[in-house]
Amino acid sequence: MGEFRFNGLSAAGQPVQGTVYAPNKRAAQKKVADLAERHKFTLRDLDERVFFRYKIKHPSGKVVTGEQKAFSSEEIESALSRMGMEVLSVQKKLFNMQRKPPNGDVIMFVRLAANLLSEKMPFNEVLNLLVADISSASLKQTIRDINSDLKGGVEAKQAFMKHQDKLGKFTAYMLGVASQSGNMSEIYEATAKFLERRDEFKKSIRSSMIMPSVTILATLGVFVWYIWFIVPATAGLFADFDGIELPPLTAFSIVMAGWLDQNMIWLLLGTAVVVGGVVAFLRSPKGTFWAHKNMIRMPIMGSLLHKLNIEVFSRVFAILYSGSGQNIEVIKVAAEACGNTYMEHQVKTVTIPMMVAQGADLVRAMEAAGVFTPMAIARFRTGSETGAVRKSAQQMADYYEKETSLKLEVALQSIQTVVSLFIGIIVALLTVLSAETALIRPSSTDLMGQ
Fold first, then answer.
1. Which of 58, 144, 209, 291 has its CA 20 to 30 A from that of 364?
2. DSSP 3-state assignment of 101?
3. Pseudo-torsion of CA 198, 140, 112, 165, nearest 10°?
4. CB under 8 Å to 438, separation ≥6 — which residues?
5. For residue 387, how many other CB atoms are within 10 A of its CB?
6. Beta-carbon contacts of residue 57 (< 8 Å; ≥ 6 apart)
7. What are phi and psi of 65, to 5 degrees?
8. Sheet (strand 86-92) strand order
9. Which residues of 233-246 are buried (b: 16+ CB within 10 A; e: fewer)?
């Protein structure tokens, strides 16, 4: 999220200044316009906090270059001059875009912070220490900004949520909550474990799907090549003779080869358009919602992914649950963290409204959402009846963690079986096709055209 500072004048002529956070300048202008209308002031200017390159000369004579975020070059010049530096130049960076830090670097940051906090190290020292060891430039700057905001008195949650585009919404929220709680080390540890678990599962799925996908594509490529080139080059010679009846599969293959010769370009273009359209749709909010809704109903992997989502929901719920009140914000954050937009939508539009507007208890509201397994409902019901909701959520998360880890191996074996079956069918078709071609026995009369 970008940081924008606005200046204006109130109706009484008093200066008005503040900051807003928005993904771009247009969104920031809209936010400030709403503020100006609400608080009756006139906007004069709006500046974004961006990177500037500076070149300074130390009193010792050493020339140093660096980068710093500021709203204007004058801010940097003034700050460096107060430090006794001779400012040689300050220029705004031409490109201020920062890439999102690699997921591994964010996980390492949270894990190392959790370890250092468990050693009772002060949080500001933890941040200073980690800045020196992190390789990602964008994450390094993010930590610097957070540390600077915390020193300036900014609320911890706000300081972290400013950088949710870099850290991730869930991570930023959890770290912000941790800084305001009395169990910072525990929340950092739980967040690190959650991030590591999610990353490990994604890597397992990705690595396990690469080989089957490559195998299927290679098999299809060989099949098309055989029909398109090999069959016409062998059996196609006999198609020109009258009186030679080709076997059905061979005849079909020759017809398909001719069709591919005429339509291959259109077939490739059509495939590219369809694939591109599907990818674009799945990346859209509507497409993602549709995919997540149907993903948990898929054979083999659907149940596994569904239980993983419930595991994440339960783990986050257990981390944040306070045991007092209805913990609406906790349920909302747990739904956002579960990784399934359909489940998140059901919790936000069914569970939470039932609890707020109708006064329903947690278990009945969760059951009405229709996205939790009977086992999860049963565990939360037991916890609600015994007053140990947090413990039940933690037990549910631990159980599903173990179950999904074990079932992942079974699912991967099932996928490999399906891939092997597919390859076997293709090989069988090619074998039959080759046998048919080999059995063609034209007579001498056929060869002579009689």
1. 291
2. coil
3. -30
4. none
5. 10
6. 63, 64, 85, 86, 88
7. -115, 155
8. 63-70, 50-57, 86-92
9. eebbebeeeeebeb
Q: Which residues pair with 48 in a beta bridge?
A: 4
CA 25 and chain centroid, separation: 25
131 CB-near residues (< 8 Å, 6+ apart)? 140, 143, 144, 147
Structural Rg of the chain based on CA atoms: 31
297-323 burial code (b ≥16 CB/10 A, e <16): eeeebebbbbbbbbbbbbbbbbbbbee
Show the tokens assigned to 331. Answer: 């349920």
d(CA 65, CA 74): 17
Give the pTM.
0.66
Q: How many residues does the chain have?
A: 450
pLDDT tens for each residue of the chain, 450 residues long: 677 888 888 888 888 888 887 777 888 888 888 888 888 888 888 888 787 888 888 888 888 887 777 888 888 888 888 888 888 888 887 766 667 888 888 888 899 988 888 888 888 888 888 887 787 878 888 888 888 888 877 888 888 888 887 888 788 888 888 877 667 888 888 888 888 877 887 787 777 777 778 888 888 888 888 888 877 777 666 656 555 666 777 778 878 888 888 888 888 899 899 999 999 998 888 999 999 889 888 877 788 888 888 988 888 888 878 654 457 888 888 888 888 899 999 999 999 999 888 888 888 999 999 899 999 999 889 988 888 888 888 888 888 888 887 877 777 777 778 888 888 888 888 888 777 766 665 555 544 554
Question: What letters, b where the CB count within 10 A reaches 16 and e where it falls short, cover 267-289?
Answer: eeeeeeeeeeeeeeeeeeeeebe
Q: Report whether 246 contacts 239 (CB < 8 A).
A: yes
> Crossing angle of helices 248-283/389-438, nearest 10°?
150
Given the structure tokens 């599969």, which residue do they identify?
249
What letter does residue 239 receive in the DSSP assignment?
G
Which residues pair with residue 91 across a beta bridge?
53
Q: Cβ(68)–Cβ(22) under 8 Å? A: no
